[in-house]
Amino acid sequence: MAPHRRRFLRGAAGLLGAAALGGCDRLAETAFGRRTLKLGEDANLFVQRLLLTPQSLAREFPDSAISAYFKPNGTIDPSDEAYRALVADQFSGFTLAVDGLVEAPQALSLSDLRALPARTQITRHDCVEGWSSIGKWTGVPLSEILGRARLKPEARYVVFHCADTMEVAGGGLEEGGTPIRYYESIELTDAYHPQTILAYDMNGKALPVAHGAPLRLRLERQLGYKMAKYVMRVEVVASLARLGDGQGGYWEDRGYEWYAGI
């Protein structure tokens, strides 16, 4: 992509990100705020779809550009009992479920995933909080997994269900409640993008827990919170209405834009 186009897109994303940080929760509590945020999101999606083809790549960098320190975003050490058991077993019992609107549901171990065609990319991670880092990611293209699962005609979105509990239904992190674990979604255009991968390696080593082990989404044309960590299940759906509060993701249900293109 030409530099001026990327600067334009990044500037728009920065404005939207700043809006999210500058009182998004308060803004999202009002009907006017929700309409305003939705207009911004629609404009962002429109501009990116207008200027970029579905195959346009995010910039990739040489090894020399890899950041000496890559700040982990979001959850960095899930305390969920089932996840801790996987960590203790070095993820030997991990299985990625792929289901929903597919003809051939999948259950893939890490060994299965590592045996599939892989892609390595060195890209910049842009966080809605305003920081960026460059890392090297290796994983299986999501398109490879979806191809094996064979989507049904009504499929429209891909949902990522994760292992990390963000809160307990009713508020807070009290014990005994129903855990709300991280969830995120993307549309099929982004799911089939060549740089959309489920990464299991970072900087040439197995993905660390702090960065989403054993599997995290890399979605290089969007902001970091879209890149779900600790992915346990990939579900293909026709609508996002029944996911959380219906906005398409954990943070989106709390006021962030669903389409976070950069």
UniProtKB/TrEMBL annotation:
Coiled coil: none annotated. This is Molybdopterin oxidoreductase. It holds the Pfam family Oxidored_molyb. Residues 92-238 form the Oxidoreductase molybdopterin-binding domain.
